[in-house]
Design brief:
The protein has about 300 residues and is an alpha/beta fold. It folds into two domains: about 180 residues, FAD/NAD(P)-binding domain, CATH 3.50.50.60; about 120 residues, FAD/NAD(P)-binding domain (3-Layer(bba) Sandwich). The chain has seven helices and 17 strands. A hairpin with a 3-residue loop joins strand 12 and strand 13.
């Protein structure tokens, strides 16, 4: 069976559309399957590390990358890929309604938010427990809220939330938050942000909506902290199910293992972005990996 596409790219974030842009430049017959366009980048308000653009936001940047890719002759399906299987000299990618044969595949499926998995989290989801400050922060004007986590992403969420909230706690299970110097300095200068170290939330409490959280260590003599909202930012889980299904090598975190050419453990399958085993999870890194993956797919097809 002749392959319908030279490459099928699964994922609609900057990694996927960067791959599509370069595949288009290289004249590959290309399909992008994107369940959600923009990826996790669209939840980011403030981007200052994209070369040539001093300040932008995630929605704008994701849209620009997508539009650049679609300048080329690229097919797009806004759907979820549910299976990836080897077939003849290539692969078959299926959605719930369609099936596509292809010589190569680029997985740029990204990640999903990691949850705390403590009592009350599901009950108060959307009723005081959130995972995106840009999406839900405006509901907390003049309220008292908390960000859970100690990464640079958590720091940026806390800084953003001070636009609305009168008080923002950062609750972190370790001694010191791990923010980049620029964001750490912004936190230290902001009187509306207070860091509670060496502490975990063990339960979310309330009635119809969240009213407080229970802590595993007393804060100011009490193990219950009154809060109007909590934003959980403790990392992400790689969406590598398709890779696992196809038999790709994954690391202990479930990330797809790649080399410098974005090649996976199976010939003809490449991967890029937050789903791969790169320690530095940044949009610019994912974009570059997408370009490398597209070029590697081109080289693979030439051989």
């Amino acid at each position: 069976m002749a392959s319908e596409y030279d490459t099928v790219i699964i994922g609609g974030g900057v990694s996927g559309f960067s791959a599509a842009m370069y595949a288009g430049r290289l004249k590959l017959k290309t399909l992008v399957i994107a369940e959600v366009k923009g990826g996790t980048l669209i939840t980011t308000n403030d981007i200052r590390n994209w070369p040539g653009i001093k300040v932008t936001d995630g929605i704008s940047l994701a849209k620009q990358v997508e539009e650049h890719a679609m300048e080329y002759d690229i097919d797009l399906r806004q759907d979820k890929a549910v299976s990836l299987e080897a077939a003849n000299s290539g692969y078959v990618v299926k959605t719930a309604k369609e099936s596509f044969s292809t010589k190569t595949v680029i997985l740029a499926t990204g990640t999903k938010v990691r949850k705390l998995k403590v009592p009350g989290e599901e009950e108060f989801s959307g009723k005081g427990v959130h995972y995106c400050a840009l999406c839900d922060g405006f509901f907390y004007k003049d309220k008292v809220i908390a960000v859970v986590g100690g990464s640079d992403s958590a720091a940026k969420e806390a800084i953003l939330l001070t636009q609305w909230a009168k008080k923002v706690y950062i609750i972190y299970r370790k001694e010191k938050i791990r923010a980049e110097p620029f964001n750490l300095e912004a936190i230290e200068k902001n009187d509306n942000i207070e860091v509670i170290n060496n502490t975990n939330i063990t339960e979310f409490l309330g009635g119809d909506n969240l009213t407080s959280v229970k802590l595993d260590k007393p804060y100011q003599g009490k193990d219950e902290l009154p809060l109007d909202g909590v934003f959980v930012e403790i990392g992400h889980i790689p969406l590598s199910e398709l890779g696992k299904q196809a038999g790709l090598k994954l690391n202990e975190k479930g990330e797809i293992v790649i080399n410098r050419n974005a090649e996976t453990s199976l010939p003809g399958i490449f991967a890029a972005g937050d789903v791969v085993d790169d320690k530095f999870k940044q949009a610019i890194v994912g974009s570059a990996e997408g370009v490398i993956a597209a070029y590697s797919a081109y080289e693979y097809l030439r051989k």
